[in-house]
Amino acid sequence: MSGTAILTHPMGRRAVLALGGAVLAGLAVREYLLTPEDFAGGDLSVEAAHEQANAGAVLLVDIRRPDEWASTGVGAGAQPLDMRRADFVAALDQLAGGDRARPIALICARGVRSARLANQLAQAGFTSIIDVPEGMLGSRAGPGWLRAGLPVVAHAEAQE
Question: Could you give the count of Cα atoms lying within 13 Å of 152 in the half-sphere of its Cβ?
Fold first, then answer.
């Protein structure tokens, strides 16, 4: 048998284009979900957040879900407060002693939720919100709390 074999694909051209479009749309949504919003406030590295929380200079709040706290622990010096709580702003206000000017640093898994929530809290009247963009697991901003080797406590030991 000589000559060139022609391979054909069972999918039509339109189906291939539709599949390619769906893949690109999925990647765009993923990128959006993993890219934090621009935040005009300050930010801290995980090391600085840990140091300042232990010194009492900032209130460090871990805004992740309870299952995430159970999986990795909570950064030592951080207060766990699930951002999905209906009374989140009131609970944060209470943690801050009613002082909306108190420096509050937010940490999540990879810095996406903390940046978005920081913007919302600034709009709600908190004047000194700080983002920890590395998060617990690392991001483009750095290796994150766990890879930096910073101490964690079990969720049961952290105050909520």
Answer: 21
Share of the chain above pLDDT 90, in %: 62
The DSSP code for 101 is T
Residue 26: burial class (beta carbons within 10 Å; 0-12, 13-18, 19+): exposed
CB 105 within 8 A of CB 131: yes
On whether the CB atoms of residues 141 and 134 are closer than 8 A, the answer is: yes
> Is pTM, for the whole model, over 0.85?
no
Query: What is the mean pLDDT of the segment spanning 47-65?
Result: 97
Phi-psi region of 39 (alpha: psi -120 to 50; beta: other; left: phi over 0): beta
Average pLDDT, the chain: 84
- Tokens, residue 117: 């929530």
Instruction: Identify the top-confidence range among 1-5, 11-15, 23-27.
Output: 11-15
Domains, in order of start, for the chain: 42-153 (3.40.250.10)
E-only strand ranges, 8-147: 42-43, 59-62, 74-75, 78-80, 104-107, 129-131
